[in-house]
TrEMBL record:
PANTHER family: 2-METHOXY-6-POLYPRENYL-1,4-BENZOQUINOL METHYLASE, MITOCHONDRIAL (PTHR43591:SF24), METHYLTRANSFERASE (PTHR43591). Keywords: Methyltransferase, Transferase. Residues 36-118 form the Methyltransferase type domain. This is SAM-dependent methyltransferase. The keyword Transferase applies. GO terms for biological process: methylation. CDD domains: AdoMet_MTases. It comes from Natronobacterium lacisalsi AJ5.
């Protein structure tokens, strides 16, 4: 399973549930007693689950990374554990949910099977389709360069990070009755005044730091050293334009990430 830093998880999940929690309606949170958030990371979803559930409901976050659990523990109760071997007895929860976890697992159906073991009722997965992300930017080159970089990265990832709507196949393979799979679009906007996260992201583009982090994955997917160097050169040039537009308070960007909520009954 791929590992992620606290900064990465905060950045990618920031604002996911701020505008609307409609995507969670089918989980019937107001009737839940015990909820498990597997692969909780820094606890972004755990916090929302606790807020939307009855005051006396118990929400537990579970993750294999102790550093991430330390952060999540500021919000909910946490337990260290592996998604394939959860440290809980059968039927310990009436809802088990994960967010952007299956896309990082080599065997999603095996994880769903384990989720169903510890759930007495529902299992749900909130998973993106990373191949369908769209970018609209005031810097002309940004959208095309992000598509090239994303394609190269996806080609080098060993797990199915485009899982999205296909998560239902893992549910069916695990023997669950799929109640629904519904698509939602999460829109992230950058516009003046810029917050610290947007400024940091722009600087990382200008230095090529983001592509440097993903270099090994991109090269394992078939991108040549020469193609990578060319992409990074164009990426840094684009990043400098982003920074320049930010300094002039002219930069605007809209990123749309489609994600799918799949709900199954044990």
């Amino acid at each position: 399973m791929r590992e992620f830093s606290e900064d990465y998880l905060r950045r990618t999940r920031r604002g996911m549930w701020d505008d609307s929690r409609e995507a969670l309606e089918s989980l019937d949170l107001e009737s839940r007693d015990r909820i498990l958030d597997v692969g909780c990371g820094t606890g972004e979803l755990s916090r929302v689950l606790a807020a939307e559930s009855p005051a006396d409901a118990e929400v537990i976050g579970c993750d294999a990374d102790p550093a991430l659990l330390e952060v999540a523990g500021e919000r909910v109760a946490v337990v260290a554990g592996d998604a394939y071997q959860l440290p809980f007895p059968d039927d310990a929860f009436d809802l088990v949910v994960c967010q952007a976890l299956l896309i990082n697992l080599p065997e999603p159906a095996a994880a769903i099977t384990e989720f169903s073991r510890v759930s007495s009722d529902l299992v749900a997965a909130v998973e993106p389709d990373n191949a369908a992300v769209s970018i609209d930017s005031s810097v002309d080159a940004e959208g095309a360069l992000e598509r090239r970089a994303r394609r190269a990265y996806l080609d080098g990832v060993e797990t199915d990070v485009t899982l999205g709507a296909d998560a239902r196949e893992a549910f069916e393979a695990a023997g669950l009755e799929v109640l629904e799979t519904r698509r939602y679009d999460h829109v992230r906007r950058v516009e003046p005044p810029y917050d610290e996260g947007a400024v940091v992201a722009a600087r990382r583009k200008a230095t090529g730091a983001g592509l440097a982090d993903d270099r090994k994955t991109m090269l394992s997917g078939g991108l040549t050293e020469r193609e990578y160097d060319q992409l990074r050169s164009e990426w840094r040039r684009m990043g400098r334009n982003v920074v320049a537009q930010m300094e002039a308070r002219e930069y605007e960007r809209e990123e749309t990430v489609p994600f799918f909520v799949t709900v199954g009954r044990v």
